[in-house]
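Problem: given the chain below (230 residues), write out its structure.
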Amino acid sequence: MPALNYTAASTTYTAHSTWAIVELWAGGGTGGGVAATSGNNGGGGGGGEYRASVVTTTPGTGYTVAVGQTRAGVSNGTANGNPSTFASTTVVANGGTGGTANATAGTGGGAGGTGGTGTLANYDGGRGGHRNGTTNSGPGGGGAGRLSVGSQGSDSAVTGGAVGTGNPGTGAGGAGRTTAGAGNAGGTYGSGGGGARTASATARAGGSGGAGYGRIYWSPPAFLCCLGCG
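Solution.
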């Protein structure tokens, strides 16, 4: 089962055959940051999308693989997760949406990544959790897997969403906060960051969104029959 794994921001795949199976996991969105006002809380960032496709390749030709890297949290702001791409637009997995900065109670969770390009299989990232109640920030959503969507971050607790089945990583969305501090980082691959919280006049950054991942096969892998069956 020949395969190459990718984590670098940009690298080149040199084709071994006339076709390849491309799998991409996008990066997670950051948690919402907060301004220097006591009582502010951010929503959780959304998890990154998964996309897979069979593509036609020319042996010996190089194709650019760009894997979405960690998206740093923003003080009093937010940022969407980085996409992962193969040959620019041939296969695209979209990153999760950043959680809302300074969210109001019951709102703020960023949407999971969706809407990419790839015809073999696709699963969305999990939505980030909303700011729950009046005191806690929202947790991040889980990155998607090759067989299921990422789990949503909790709206009623501070537990981050789990990655979907078949995700090569194990890192859940960043936990929400019950005490003041910067948001917790999202795990690999593609989980969203947790929202920040402040109980004093100090601005805080949301948790970073987890990096994505890439994998390319040029011989049919054992799991091929299961892709898309969900």
